[in-house]
């Protein structure tokens, strides 16, 4: 989070920000960080374990049906980013599916790391500028490849339809570089 600004005329909104942080299920240390240090919170994140993705997807489809919404086959309630799980929905998700995430308040200067495939949502406060970087770590190549395959089944007009991670290219270039290094050091590797 590289910038958090407060619009003119809204300088005295600490009560509202505190309520947002508390309603977001933030822990006591985060609340204390806001109330005592006067740092500027920019976003409230809820991050869930990747292993709970299908449960969350099922829950969102169920809620959509209850509200009379359609669930087209080529759309995905997580990738569509059309839901925000407020406190009542988060509580219901926990009660009905046993899924509980982590609430993280991102203050000015903080970094939030989201593991591959972890469903997440963010609610920004005021005016924020964040810098995001997607990357593929060796430990998560398998999961990233699975996500790429999942994106293929979305509609052609979906914003996540394209392979943004380029996992196959990452794997190809990693193997190519490894082979190049091994060949360059082949003589020193063959010595007893």
TrEMBL record:
JmjC domain: from which residue to which, for each copy? 1-152
Note on how the cofactor is bound:
Binds 1 Fe(2+) ion per subunit.
User: What superkingdom heads the lineage?
Assistant: Eukaryota
Return the Pfam families for the record: JmjC
Give coiled-coil spans as residue ranges. Answer: none
Reactions performed catalytically: N(6),N(6)-dimethyl-L-lysyl(9)-[histone H3] + 2 2-oxoglutarate + 2 O2 = L-lysyl(9)-[histone H3] + 2 formaldehyde + 2 succinate + 2 CO2
Q: What class of enzyme is it?
A: oxidoreductase
Matching entries from SMART domains are given as:
JmjC (SM00558)
Q: Which cofactor does this sequence's record say it needs? A: Fe(2+)
Q: Where in the cell is it found?
A: Cytoplasm; Nucleus
Primary residence:
cytoplasm
Any one GO molecular-function label of the UniProt entry: chromatin DNA binding
Q: Name one GO biological process term.
A: demethylation
Cite a GO CC annotation. Answer: chromatin
Q: Please give the function described in this protein's UniProt entry.
A: Histone demethylase that specifically demethylates 'Lys-9' of histone H3, thereby playing a central role in histone code.
- Provide the protein name: Lysine-specific demethylase
Question: Which gene carries the instructions for this protein?
Answer: Kdm3a
């Amino acid at each position: 989070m590289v910038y958090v600004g407060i619009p003119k005329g809204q300088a005295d909104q600490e009560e509202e920000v505190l309520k947002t942080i508390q309603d977001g299920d933030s822990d006591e240390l985060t609340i204390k960080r806001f109330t005592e240090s006067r740092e500027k919170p920019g976003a409230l994140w809820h991050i869930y374990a990747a292993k709970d993705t299908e449960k969350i997807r099922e829950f969102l489809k169920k809620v959509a049906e209850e509200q009379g919404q359609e669930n087209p086959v080529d759309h995905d309630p997580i990738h569509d980013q059309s839901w925000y799980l407020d406190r009542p929905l988060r509580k219901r998700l926990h009660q009905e599916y046993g899924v509980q995430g982590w609430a993280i308040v991102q203050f000015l200067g903080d970094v939030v790391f989201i593991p591959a495939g972890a469903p997440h949502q963010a609610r920004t406060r005021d005016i924020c500028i964040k810098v995001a970087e997607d990357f593929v770590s060796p430990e998560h190549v398998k999961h990233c490849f699975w996500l790429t395959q999942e994106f293929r089944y979305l509609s052609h007009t979906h914003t996540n339809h394209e392979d943004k991670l380029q996992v196959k290219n990452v794997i190809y270039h990693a193997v190519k570089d490894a082979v190049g290094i091994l060949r360059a050091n082949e003589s020193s590797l063959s010595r007893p």
